[in-house]
Automatic annotation (TrEMBL):
<feature type="active site">
    <location>
        <position position="210"/>
    </location>
</feature>
<dbReference type="GO" id="GO:0019544">
    <property type="term" value="P:L-arginine catabolic process to L-glutamate"/>
</dbReference>
<keyword id="KW-0056">Arginine metabolism</keyword>
<protein>
    <recommendedName>
        <fullName>Succinylglutamate desuccinylase</fullName>
        <ecNumber>3.5.1.96</ecNumber>
    </recommendedName>
</protein>
<dbReference type="GO" id="GO:0016788">
    <property type="term" value="F:hydrolase activity, acting on ester bonds"/>
</dbReference>
<dbReference type="InterPro" id="IPR050178">
    <property type="entry name" value="AspA/AstE_fam"/>
</dbReference>
<dbReference type="GO" id="GO:0019545">
    <property type="term" value="P:L-arginine catabolic process to succinate"/>
</dbReference>
<comment type="pathway">
    <text>Amino-acid degradation; L-arginine degradation via AST pathway; L-glutamate and succinate from L-arginine: step 5/5.</text>
</comment>
<dbReference type="GO" id="GO:0008270">
    <property type="term" value="F:zinc ion binding"/>
</dbReference>
<feature type="domain" description="AstE/AspA barrel-sandwich hybrid">
    <location>
        <begin position="251"/>
        <end position="323"/>
    </location>
</feature>
<comment type="similarity">
    <text>Belongs to the AspA/AstE family. Succinylglutamate desuccinylase subfamily.</text>
</comment>
<dbReference type="Pfam" id="PF24827">
    <property type="entry name" value="AstE_AspA_cat"/>
</dbReference>
<dbReference type="Pfam" id="PF04952">
    <property type="entry name" value="AstE_AspA_hybrid"/>
</dbReference>
<keyword id="KW-0862">Zinc</keyword>
<feature type="binding site">
    <location>
        <position position="56"/>
    </location>
    <ligand>
        <name>Zn(2+)</name>
    </ligand>
</feature>
<feature type="binding site">
    <location>
        <position position="146"/>
    </location>
    <ligand>
        <name>Zn(2+)</name>
    </ligand>
</feature>
<keyword id="KW-0378">Hydrolase</keyword>
Length: 327
């Protein structure tokens, strides 16, 4: 563990500045939030966030390893870099969250429940991210790194937040492919996630990256994360390096068709607990019911994503997705 992660997880952290090799300076902006300065002002601005869900440890280890090598002078930094260990309390507890799922509280949703610890943190992270990107002069990039609760037909996939009038970036999709991302979900409506917030309100190219299955610290096979690790290191050290063009046929795209909303405690999901993300739903299959509401699969090409019947009523208990193409 680097001293960055140790500091991020300290019970009562102070906000020091640390001088690093190669003329870099690390500034703690808030608990778990460290900005590395030293690259030219007109460099790309990169926000790496991890631990929005505290039990998703592999991305924390990947980001920590990058910080470790930057601090040891083994990795050059030619971007402005903000690293956010998003939910230190949940990381310490080895829990997804303490009081409420933080990735449902961005985009201002925290204002409806200001008493929650995760709401206060989400508000703080929005302010920090907005400040960081406000000073950006070149590309604005945000990768919010996660692992999923369950297995997946596509082990590594990205969620591309809804862009409103903006168009999807083929260059970013090509970069994701270089990371080993195997599929991309193109969201078709706003969401209260960190990546939607920075996409919509900071004009960042922002993505939620699901990089495998969540395991406790020390039980991750970091070789399975080599693709994202190497791609991030290359981005930070040589941001202008050429990227192989997008090989569209080998990167399937999906779009969210509708959310399975759990309206009441009588919500019943008709899928096995072990069902993997992106499992195909046969035409006519009853996916879930909830009182008089029935969710039935249509067409045979739909797939299930993030099924979780245990969420609180009023929240999304899964997403039904279908194949998509770029505009
Ligand atoms: Zn997550």
């Amino acid at each position: 563990m680097s001293r960055f992660l140790q500091h991020a997880l300290a019970a009562n952290p102070t906000h020091p500045s640390w001088n690093l090799p190669n003329g870099l300076c690390a500034r703690w902006l808030a608990p778990g939030c460290v900005q590395l300065d030293g690259a030219p002002d007109d460099a790309d601005s990169v926000l790496l966030s991890c631990g929005v869900h505290g039990n998703e440890t592999a991305p924390i280890e990947v980001v920590d390893g990058i910080l470790y090598d930057l601090a040891a002078g083994r990795l050059a930094l030619n971007c402005r870099l903000l690293v956010i260990f998003a939910n230190p309390q949940a990381i310490r507890d080895g829990a997804r969250y303490s009081q409420y799922d933080m990735n449902r509280l961005f985009n201002g949703a925290h204002r409806a429940q200001p008493e929650l610890a995760e709401s206060q943190r989400a508000a703080q992270l929005e302010t920090l991210a907005a400040g960081f990107f406000h000073a950006a002069r070149k590309r604005r990039l945000h990768y919010d790194l996660h692992t999923a609760i369950r297995g997946s037909v596509f082990e590594k996939f990205a969620i591309y937040p809804y862009l409103h009038e903006r168009s999807h970036s083929r260059e970013q999709l090509a970069w994701l492919q270089q990371c080993g991302i195997e599929a991309v979900l193109l969201h078709s409506q706003p969401a209260n996630t960190f990546s939607y917030f920075t996409s919509r309100h900071c004009a960042a190219d922002a993505f939620t990256l699901e990089l495998g299955k969540a395991r406790p610290f020390g039980q991750n096979d970091l070789a399975r994360f080599a693709g994202i690790d190497q791609a991030l290191r290359k981005l930070l050290s040589t941001p202008d390096a050429a990227i192989a063009p997008l090989d569209a046929p080998s990167l399937p795209l999906f779009r969210a068709k509708y959310d399975l909303v759990k309206h009441s405690e009588s919500f019943c999901l008709h899928l096995a607990d072990s069902v993997e993300n992106f499992t195909e739903l046969p035409d006519g299959m009853l996916i879930a019911d909830d009182g008089d509401t029935r969710y039935v699969a249509a067409g045979g090409a739909e797939r299930i994503l993030f099924p979780n019947p245990k969420v609180k009523p009023g929240l999304r208990a899964g997403i039904v997705v279908e194949p998509a193409t770029l505009d």
